[in-house]
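Exercise 3.2. Students should predict the tertiary structure of the chain below and write it as structure tokens, then compare their answer with the key that follows.

Predict this chain's 3D structure.
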Amino acid sequence: MPSPSSLFSPLPDPVHPARIGDVLIGPQPVKILASIMAPGTSDLIETAYDYQRLEGDRSIDILEWRADFFESPGLNAFLAAALELRQCTEKPVVWTLRTRAEGGLAPDDESYREQVLGMAASELVDAVDMELARGITAEDVALARQAQTRVILSYHNFEKTPSQEAMLEMLLAMDALGADVLKIAVMPRTPEDVLSLLSVTCAARRRTGKPVISMSMGAWGALSRVSGAIFGSSAAFASVVHASAPGQFEVSRARTLMRELLQAS
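Answer key:
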């Protein structure tokens, strides 16, 4: 009888991978993103330069610029900072403006849409993270893709884990809108919530053929952040200095755990 490990095979690579800068999200290995939560341009540039120099297991694949941490926000300020950022790092950049409702600092008003669409059309960042709950349309996604900016459509819930049916419906809605990457982050209240998120990740990968980034937050959900190769999440967020969400591992620890999980399988 074959051993359990010999029966294991990771999910096949997505048939529609997403190229963000020079990094292809979808094929193995799982890609690592690290967030920069800088209050201004000088801190943004300094941190990006530090991240650029990380090597080995501490290296990252993609930078996420959390623009909602800027102390003087606004589209003009973001565009000016993005121009400087482009000149100081070779890492692909995902621009994210997280609203208060999704665990960030940006106001939940019409300025969100203006700034997200402005950055998507600027050609100064490689991808933009757009919140599904902010009323993003297929036209908005198409506008970004015309500028060769990849779109990560996302859903965040820091209070609970919705039902499997609701989560899968949201991921399929992101796919229907034309997103390049489908992203979901939820808070578990029971161990079963973590299993629900992992099951939905597999289902969304199989149904859409697109890269999925999924995470169950907090201590209970920590496994979901490093089990992408098994359950279908194509990228993971890890911390270099400060975590941008509860439950993140430090970069080198995340890489080590990913390797160990695959080897044990």
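Discussion points: Residues 4-264 form a domain with the TIM Barrel fold (CATH 3.20.20.70). The two ends are 17 Å apart (CA to CA).
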